[in-house]
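Example record used in the benchmark description.
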Amino acid sequence: MVDARKPAAAGVFYPAERELLARTVRELLDAAPPSRTTSRPGRVRAIVVPHGVLGAAGTVAAAAWARVAPHAARFRRVVLLGPAHHTQFLGIAAPFADTFATPLGAVEVDRIAIEVVRRFPQLMVTDAPHEQEPSLEVQLPFLQTLLPSAAIVPLLVGEIEDADAAQVLDELWDDETLVVVSTDLSHYYDAATAQRLDEATARAVETLDAGPIGEEQACGHAALRGLLTAARARKLKATRIDVRHSGEVSGELTEVVGYGSFVVG
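Model output (structure tokens):
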């Protein structure tokens, strides 16, 4: 019997109707501007993307996901890392679920990969943090559109040392694996403050410097710091694709959420 993780964000963070969701994701990807910096083969190893409501954050997320498209044939697996907004815990939580579902269908979980990293004491296997968590789920429609055959390793990252997060990632990050870190940037500051904070965060990401990035800078700071630590050890480079805030869509500038997308390769 397949243990399926049901959608928790459909109809809230993204459309619940299959055809509308498929059309929306495709339109966002088609509208993404081309990039010269990540076009050559083998260049995309990881992306950092926001997980806000698709109407607000979708353009920023699609800008990075579109960079994956030319390399889609390379990837058989996607390691998804993001924060747990509803549960506090130490370490990294992988699910027992065999699939993660969206209105576009079910995505297979790479259970063998989870068993491989289960030997690390910082990793636990539990469905509870995943049940209502949107941060990984909102990336699945992009993944299902661009990488329909890829399996996923969904990992929620709690309180953890950078080296411990990077250790788990390193074990899974081979040439056929795309790493996706799902995180928004600053939360609920006025637009001017958010732009200042997010610009500093973007510069830290571009230099693979985990040091300045904390909870104030990104809700998924632990996952992001783990990626930057692993990427620095591999002598990779990070490129900023897009950074903006929710007020640029809503017009509400007193409390905004920052969104950023980056490519690591």
